Every structure is written in C-alpha cells, then in structure tokens.
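User: Quick sanity check before I run a bigger batch. Here is a single chain. Can you write out its predicted 3D structure?
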Amino acid sequence: MALGALWLALGWPLASRADPAEASAPAPSADDSKEPRWLRVQVQATDVLQHKPSMRSPYEGANSLPGEAVTSNTVDASLIFGVRPWRGGQFWFDGDLNQGFAPGNTLGVAGFVNGEGAKVGHSSPYLRAQRYVFRQTIPLGGDAADIDSDMMEFGGATTRNRLVVSIGKFSLTDVMDDNAYAHDPKNDFLNWALIDTGAWDYAADAWGFSTGAVVEWYEGDWTLRGGVMTLSSEPNSAQLTKGFEQFQLDGEVEYRQSWLGREGKIKLLGFVSRGRMGRFDDAIALAEATGPPPNTALVRRYRSRPGLSINVEQPVSDAAGLFVRAGWADGRYESYEYTDIDRTFAAGGSVNGQAWGRKADTAALALIVNGISSAHQLYLAGGGLGILVGDGRLPHPGAEAIVEAYYSLGLAEGVHLSFDSQTVVNPAYNRDRGPAVVLGLRLHAEYR
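Assistant: Done. Predicted structure follows.
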C-alpha cells in the first residue's frame, strides 16, 4: 500500500485539524474543563517503507536476513473506540488492519529494524481485534492531579495517589517499560531493542498482545506495577494459551526523581515466564545423540525463565532528553515471545525542533548492543533456529551492535513524516555477515 493511502484513509479527520489558526486557538471542549466526553473515536495509520541494500553474505540459513537488496513496506491502521461509563472507568476497543512484510519477513536481526512489522506478514490487508481492555482509576488522596488525554486515554482529574487496574486483552508495553524518548515505533525509534528493552521477553502473541490484568499503585514519587498475563501456546506462536496454564508474572518499580530541576524516571522491571520451553544444553545434547540440528521444540518442559531490566529517562533541557535501557534474561532457555536477546544495553537522546524553529519536529540518535549466552551461541552454531535468528551456522559469533537515527518532520497537526537510518553490525550475532544498512520512510497520521 502506498504512503499516500494514509491520506485517503484519514482524510476527513485530518482535514478537520489541518488549519493552523484552529490549532493555535482551539475551541473550548470537555477536556478543557477536565470533564472528558463519555465516548471517543480515534484513528491512526502508519506506513513504513524500508530499503536494505545488498550486504556481505557468504552463507544464509532459514532465519537469515537476505544478502541481496530488499525493499519492504508495512501498513498498520487502527480504529479505536473508547467509552467512559462512569468517573474513573474506561473501556477501549482497538481494531487493527495490517498489510505487508518487514525486511526479511521479520527475520535475521535480533534487534529487529521495524517495530511496526508484525511477525505475521501478509500481502493483502487483514483485520484483527487487538485490544479490548477495561481500565479503572481509584483515587487514594493526596494532591490533585490531571491526566492528559491521549490515544486510548480519556484523561481528566484524579489524585496523585491512586490505583489503576487494567483487565482484558492489551499489550504489556501499554503499561510497563514506557520511555518518553524510545517506546513508540509510530513516532520515535523503529528498532525492537529501543522501543522496548530487548531482553524483556514479555508475554504476547505474534502481534504483541496478551490477556490478563495489571495493577498500578501510585504513591508520591513512586509507582508499583504488577501483572499476570497469558503466554502464547508455544514459543513464538500466534495463539495464546487458553486460561493461565502458561503465564508470565511482571513487576515494575518506578521512581520519579528531579535532576537539575527536571523530573526524570528510573524503572526497574522483573519478569518470570512459566511455560513449556526448551533448554539449549538439552537440545544440543539430543542433537549430538540423534543428529543435528538442535531443536528446542524437542526438549520442552514446564520451566521458569526470569529476567530483569532497568529503564532511565531524563530531560536535560526544555527541548532535549536522554535515555538508557539495560536488560538481562536467563540465557539457558529459549526466548519465548519477543526476540533472541539474553542481554542488552541501549542509550540515546532526542531533541525537539524548537531549537531551530520547528517545534513539531524531532531528531534522535541511539546505540544498541545485544548479546546472547554461550549456550545460546552453541545452539545457533549447530544450526538451531531462534525466534528471529538462525543463519545455519555461527563460526564467528559477536555482539550485535545497532545505530539508529531518525528525523521526524511535522507536516500538519497529527501528521509526521520520518526519515530513518539503521546500521546493524554482526546481524544475528554473526561476524561473517553484514553490516546491514536499512533506510526508511515512515508516514504516521492520527486523530484523537
């Protein structure tokens, strides 16, 4: 689907918001009085066009990024309905349309290059109900606070101390591991190891959604979050487990601190996945006894896989901010849901264009270094396949390093065109292949 299709899909709402005079002097609304409307309809659409030139590729496996030049296109569009049945209560439904393929059909790089590309690519559009979630906010006292309205958020008045309960089908990334500078592939970075901590193997189907519940407790400068979500029926599956036979426990502690007079956030997240998963050593031992390649699917048992991550965001001026993420997951076991990363470090910064007279623009740069355990390396070296990676051999392993930069150009209210560049050194931890360069254009439009 061409980039211009977004304008057709969203023509009526964009036309109603494109007048700069109207944008600078909005008419009074329910939001201005902190009494949000009871019904909302929101739409968004994102089109990502990417080109990967040819790269060094002496050999390829089933999960390799192609050595030849490839051009790919993914489209995601959402029609979102929100209902506010009573104060503090919100119900949201999100129906998504998807089409297209990410480079290499979302294979060949652990820190994958298109956060808008689902693991299930398709040449024709298809529809899915991705979210149906109920959220209840319960005030607990303290100073008055206002929540800004946003996508899938009515906003309004509440108290600083409060409980927020979310139940239904949604993404854990809607609630946890948020970062003001690196979390939204529709508007900021595209790389999987930047939009979320790469080692956070969060419970999800192939589109990134799961069923369960998360409770958030806001108290002063602290927030505690805890949740239980359903794992997919087997690693990297499109189907979720029925009930909670296989599940994940997630907990996050957030501290809001002030540095140089500007509020930043520090978040510590931990998870434990409980499901049928394979251990790399067992798969290698079985392959040595029966013949290669090793396959974790043949040695799956009901086990636990834990992980930890830290996430820091800090504004340094009115226009600029920095972020750091680092994560670890138990590398003895196969990744269950997200991607093949056992440890990761990412850091970067973002600058708003007000510094050069374009406050609707953003420029950003980030670095990622991903790694895997020695057992994981041996598994890939023997020809094993992971969720996203597997070149059929790995004689010269190395850390996967990625640099991403983007410039987001504000075209109109709610409409941005981004220019993105990613360079991947040692894709899939393989020093024999690459580096891979991926250049992209992203057009995003939304109406809230």
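The CA atoms of residues 46 and 444 lie 4 Å apart.

User: Great, the batch can go ahead then.
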